[in-house]
Design a protein that fits this description.
Layout (H helix, E strand, L loop, with lengths): L11 H11 L3 E14 L10 E8 L3 E8 L3 H5 L6 E9 L7 E4 L5 H7 L5 E3 L1 H14 L2 E10 L3 E4 L20 E5 L4 E8 L4
Parallel strand pairs: 3-8
Antiparallel strand pairs: 1-2, 1-5, 1-7, 2-3, 4-6, 4-10, 7-8, 7-9, 9-10
Length: 197
């Protein structure tokens, strides 16, 4: 449910410096006002494997949230590239205030112990369409992941960080997820897993 602490008012330049100075992945949680949702733009259509959500977080400004629609690592290694999705549906009374903050971590195992969740496979096109529809409908978007700076300030790694079929690095407690605050008080939190997770 929405966090009622006072929103962080850290300027954009300071967040960019934090990302640069960290010298390591900077795990964060953001809540923003969505104003642009689209499929990734790439010269090669075969490399389009993300949906981009641009949200506004005053006074930090725009943050680009990048969500995978398939696993390119699994695809190139000959494994199942599809992503499995679980959707945790909750209710909210008030829209949360925009914020950006460093976060201690999100662990799918804890969420799964508290709620009965079913993961279903999604093809790239179907998942992309679903995410775009949710992004267009959302009044707020909340996400957990790693901050990065690459010509813009963004958040990525929006998926389980446990070892997968193609990626053997096993990161515990820093999973990524996205939650859409929809009209009528409904909220949907998307959890993402790859082959082998």
């Amino acid at each position: 449910m929405p966090n009622r602490r006072t929103p962080q008012r850290t300027p954009r330049e300071e967040w960019q410096c934090r990302v640069f100075d960290a010298r390591a992945p900077l795990y964060a949680r953001v809540i923003g006002i969505p104003y642009h949702t689209r499929l990734e733009v790439a010269d090669d259509p075969e490399r389009v494997d993300h949906v981009w959500f641009t949200v506004q977080i005053p006074p930090c400004g725009p943050i680009l949230i990048s969500v995978n629609t398939l696993s390119r690592f699994n695809l190139l290694a000959g494994f199942d590239a599809r992503i499995r999705i679980a959707i945790l549906r909750t209710r909210y009374a008030e829209k949360p205030e925009p914020l950006i903050e460093e976060h201690t971590g999100l662990d799918y195992a804890i969420i799964e112990a508290q709620f009965p969740l079913t993961y279903e496979h999604y093809e790239h096109a179907t998942l992309a369409q679903l995410l775009i529809e949710k992004g267009h409908a959302a009044l707020r978007i909340e996400a957990w992941g790693e901050l990065y700076r690459q010509g813009h300030l963004g958040l990525h790694q929006i998926h389980s960080r446990r070892a997968s079929c193609a990626v053997k690095t096993d990161i515990i407690g820093h999973d990524g997820a996205i939650r859409f605050y929809l009209p009528g008080g409904d909220a949907e939190m998307f959890l993402f897993k790859y082959c082998g997770q």
